[in-house]
């Protein structure tokens, strides 16, 4: 017998998928920022700046999970998640500006 998967419910909710995409995009941006810091900066503070970027990424992940588990509706969650992502990107840009 064949098992049809076309009528099955999605394995993850749309909210969870959206949260994962925000986290994934931010991790990619953090990686780009860290690579830029290590390639363009031979100074001793590079390690500290990389740690700040990585730490901010962890904060974003925790905030996204908190938003995901809140009682807000999906549109509110999306708005809050986008704000967290924008805040993280602003932080990454401020770190990059320190070495320019």
Task: Please outline the helices and strands.
Elements: H1 14-40, H2 46-68, H3 74-97
Describe the protein in words.
- This protein is mainly α and 100 residues long.
- Helix content is 74%, strand content 0%.
- The chain is built from 3 helices and no strands.
- The protein has helices spanning 14-40, 46-68, 74-97.
- α1 (14-40) runs antiparallel to α2, α1 runs parallel beside α3 and α2 (46-68) packs antiparallel against α3 (74-97).
- The N and C termini lie far apart (63 Å).
- The model has no long low-confidence stretch (mean pLDDT 88).
Give short descriptive properties of this protein.
single chain, 100 residues, mainly alpha, 3 helices
Q: TL;DR?
A:
By secondary structure, this protein is mainly alpha-helical. It contains three helices and no strands.
How widely separated are the two ends? 63 Å
Strand content: under 5%
Number of helices: 3
Largest sheet: none
Helix content: over 70%
Uncertain segments: none
* Oligomerization status of the protein chains: single chain
Rg: 18 Å
Secondary-structure element series: HHH
Class of secondary structure makeup: mainly alpha
Number of beta strands: 0
Provide mean pLDDT, rounded: 88
What is the molecular shape? elongated
């Amino acid at each position: 017998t064949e098992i049809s998967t076309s009528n099955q419910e999605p394995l993850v909710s749309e909210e969870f998928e959206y949260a994962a995409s925000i986290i994934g995009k931010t991790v990619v941006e953090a990686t780009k920022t860290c690579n830029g810091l290590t390639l363009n900066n031979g100074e001793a503070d590079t390690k500290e700046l990389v740690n700040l970027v990585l730490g901010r990424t962890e904060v974003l992940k925790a905030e996204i999970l908190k938003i995901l588990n809140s009682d807000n509706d999906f549109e509110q969650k999306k708005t809050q998640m986008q704000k967290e992502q924008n805040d993280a990107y602003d932080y990454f840009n401020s770190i990059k500006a320190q070495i320019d």
